[in-house]
Amino acid sequence: AVSGSSSVVTRPPSSPEVSSPESSSPPATQPSAGETPPVTVAPPPTLAPTSPPPTTTPPTTQVPKPTTPPTAATVNVTIPEGFTLPQIAARLEEKGVCSKDAFLEMAQTYDFSYYSLIGALPDNPYLLEGYLFPNTYNFYKGMKPQDAIGVLLRGAQAGIGDKYAYPGMSTHELVILASIIEKEASGAADRKLISGVLHNRLEKGWKLQADPTINYVEQAIKPNITGDKDRYSAYYNTYRCAALPAGPICNPGASALDAAANPTRTAYMFFVSDKVTG
Questions:
Q1: For residue 97, which of 109, 108, 85, 88 has the smallest C-alpha distance?
Q2: Which residue, 163, 135, 158, 121, is CA-closest to 251?
Q3: Mean pLDDT of the chain
């Protein structure tokens, strides 16, 4: 599923178990009824929250319009490039938006397929990773977690959409590759060179052997699941995967996405990172 004959694992493992949301949080099968605050202007641009339809609603590309509650405490939250889904959940809990556990629960169980980017996704073991687009967003405190996720998915619709393309690769494959570039590169100057190395490996049928894919399982997934903690390893460990991992390993920003779609073409097959300077 990369720009050659290499294939990607498409059969996901059993759905990850996460801690149960707080008793005040709505069950995954209930429709979102929360109202949302007005958009506030803040650099970078803020994106206002939206309430998703019930899970029984057939998938559609029409995203519900946000509404304005009469009173609500709002907060701007910055999601940095390269944050993982659990890191985002923890930051929102820190800011009083919603609990981390409830956020992770909804990310894995709620039907967000009415967002076209999500509706087009193949089976993805750790749902929504890669599609919580880095930016500064406006939330209201005590928000339903599915509404908070909706804010970030609307950001992905605007920030990713169909902006990035590379011959023989889908948008999802580019997001996966960009997530690895985001974790491998210390700055913008290196991203397109590293992208070129990774493209060369994929085109020659080499394994990517990217250490951040192992770190993702160990540091982002395992601490947040119960049961068989190793059940994701084969899907993300690029020392074992034939090509790309089964899903993104973080939420890449625009620079990494652009690098994935526009690599610097060289004959390089390797790069070295200085552990002190990056």
A1: 88
A2: 135
A3: 81
